[in-house]
């Protein structure tokens, strides 16, 4: 981790708000899924944000996770380094992020390397892992291991096809958003500008 002193004032308030978004229950669910998905001898980290960060920080668990979502022989990260050198670990996190985006995770759901490396925004790391799990469940290609109910299934495209005749008929219908003129008449209306007769 970087040697940073404590933050004060507005910086501290912003960091506290970011830290409030972290979900300990979600952490447990994600750890269980990662261990089950990787199907390797990965040790379970002690509970807590800092332990979760240290568990993922070198990038090896993340790389094993993304590789396990592909069929054997098609893994996006062929060589996973167990190096203790900081730049190698950060490079592995970047490789995971690139592979997750290729897999189908939206760019807006992907955390920055420093969010994990420096522990700045572990809630963003959780969001990325949740998005990855959702994409894996939605793909339903047989590589996902775990309960399908752990993640939300993403909506799929559902195109509708209309014939020319159906489209022409739709132009003749007044939608209810436009309002209705049923029962409306101009009986009793006077011309604009004429004074009201008050008796």
Automatic annotation (TrEMBL):
SMART domains named among the record's database cross-references: CH
Domain called Calponin-homology (CH): residue spans: 24-136
GO biological process entries: actin filament organization
Keywords: Phosphoprotein
Pfam families to which the protein is assigned, alphabetical: Calponin (PF00402), CH (PF00307)
Tree of life domain: Eukaryota
Any one Gene Ontology molecular-function term assigned to this protein's record: actin filament binding
InterPro entries: Calponin-like (IPR050606), Calponin_repeat (IPR000557), CH_dom (IPR001715), CH_dom_sf (IPR036872), SM22_calponin (IPR003096)
Family of this protein: Belongs to the calponin family.
Record-linked PANTHER family: CALPONIN, TRANSGELIN-3
Protein name: Transgelin
């Amino acid at each position: 981790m970087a040697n940073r002193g404590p933050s004060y004032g507005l910086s501290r308030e912003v960091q506290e708000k970011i830290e409030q978004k972290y979900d300990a229950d979600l952490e447990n669910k994600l750890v269980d899924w990662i261990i089950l998905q990787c199907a390797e001898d990965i040790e379970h980290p002690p509970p807590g944000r800092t332990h979760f960060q240290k568990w993922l920080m070198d990038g090896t668990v993340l790389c094993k996770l993304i590789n396990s979502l592909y069929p054997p022989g098609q893994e996006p990260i062929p060589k996973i380094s167990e190096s203790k050198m900081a730049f190698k670990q950060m490079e592995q996190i970047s490789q995971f992020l690139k592979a997750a985006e290729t897999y189908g995770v939206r760019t807006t759901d992907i955390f920055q390397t420093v969010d994990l490396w420096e522990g700045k925004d572990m809630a963003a790391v959780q969001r990325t892992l949740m998005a990855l799990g959702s994409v894996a469940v939605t793909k339903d290609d047989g590589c996902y291991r775990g309960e399908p109910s752990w993640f939300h299934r993403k909506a799929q495209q559902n195109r509708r096809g209309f014939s020319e005749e159906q489209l022409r008929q739709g132009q003749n219908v007044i939608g209810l958003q436009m309002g209705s003129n049923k029962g409306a008449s101009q009986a009793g209306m006077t011309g604009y500008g004429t004074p009201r007769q008050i008796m």
